[in-house]
Design brief:
single chain, about 300 residues, alpha/beta, TIM Barrel, 2 domains, 7-stranded parallel β-sheet, 13 helices, 7 strands, about 15% strand, binds flavin mononucleotide
């Protein structure tokens, strides 16, 4: 997830037991990679394998070039984004806008597959629009052009993030292709994982938003991490905050605010929702890295004192 699954977040999710993590989407245009934002987005984490990156673009030669460069830089899987509905991406004929042009999708995948000796995977939506739900066709194209796996977000491009994800198209895709199929969309707990996996027969599920402010969730669903106490959640928040501040330097104070907001939103059992929103507002007034850390450390201490008294 662009703006979320940076190196510090992936590191935590991996440590808690995620089975696979993918870097933030980057443009396939290598001449845009010199900015510090792009450099940080492309940074891999020592110890996480396979190293999976995601690229977005609409030109087969550019995609092939990006795949080659990522492979030379150590990527072990290159994923191509055919799912992003963001205007900034679609205006450039990339992401989910490409679902309208099946021939171009085929040429993009073929070019990437020919360019590198590592797996090329694709992330798609269930189709371009409700009227043109062509995810099945796109998945078939992906397989015949040599993609190693396909992740399907059960919404069309036109749906963006509205409505509920549907899994009929995902099931039909699983039925049609023999490469691994990964289901995605609105999955947030083990029961849903079970329901989607048994209902569709997919090989795996991908979880996005439910892991915001809960990097432990993936390992928990996988059964390798137990339920965290409030104190352990605060310890994770402090670790994440510190890692983000180190990773982003001066920008870290601002960038880490959204992560901390997501954690607080999900801290059930730690005051009420309004109380937690007030804490977020106070946290957001802090402009020094050290002050942010101290704020969380004090809350962690309070939780431990309450725990000890109980
Ligand atoms: C903030 C944000 C950033 C995202 N960035 C990407 C991205 O870079 N690449 C991608 O394939 N999908 C991206 N997505 C879409 C998610 O991967 C996923 O398909 C979608 O959120 C549905 O799954 P979920 O309900 O588990 O979140 C993003 C979603 C969000 C909310």
């Amino acid at each position: 997830m662009a703006g979320v699954t940076d190196a510090p977040f992936r590191q935590l999710a991996w440590r808690f037991g995620a089975g696979h993590v993918v870097g933030e989407m980057v443009s396939a245009k290598a001449d845009l990679w010199h900015t510090s934002k792009s450099r940080l987005r492309r940074q891999s984490v020592v110890g996480i394998s396979p190293v999976a990156v995601q690229i977005a673009g609409g030109d087969p030669a550019t995609i092939a070039d990006a795949a080659r460069r990522h492979w030379r830089d150590g990527a072990e899987i290159v994923d191509i984004n055919f799912g992003c509905p963001a205007r900034k991406v679609c205006r450039k004929a990339a992401g989910s806008a490409l679902l309208a042009d099946e021939d171009l999708v085929a040429r993009i995948i073929a070019a990437a597959v020919a360019a590198v000796p590592i797996p090329i995977t694709v992330k798609i939506r269930s189709g371009y629009s409700l009227e043109r739900r062509n995810g099945l066709t796109i998945a078939g194209i992906a397989e015949s052009e040599g993609a190693a796996a396909v992740t399907v977000h059960g919404r069309t491009r036109a749906c963006r993030f509205l409505g509920a994800a549907e899994y009929d198209t995902v099931a039909a895709i699983k039925d049609k292709v023999s490469i691994p199929v990964i289901a995605n969309g609105d999955i947030s707990d083990a029961a849903q994982v079970h329901q989607v996996m048994t209902g569709t027969g997919v090989d795996a599920v991908m979880i996005g938003r439910a892991a915001l402010g809960a990097p432990w969730l993936l390992g928990q669903i996988a059964g390798v991490t137990g339920v965290l106490s409030l104190a352990e959640k605060f310890d994770t928040m402090i670790e994440h905050l510190h890692a983000g501040q180190q990773f982003y330097g001066d920008a870290g104070v601002r960038i880490m605010r959204k992560h901390m907001m997501w954690y607080f939103e999900k801290l059930d059992g730690f005051g009420g929702a309004e109380e937690r929103r007030a804490l977020v507002r106070t946290f957001n007034t802090l402009i020094e890295a050290e002050a942010q850390l101290q704020f969380l450390q004090q809350l962690a201490l309070d939780v431990r004192v309450v725990d000890a008294a109980a």
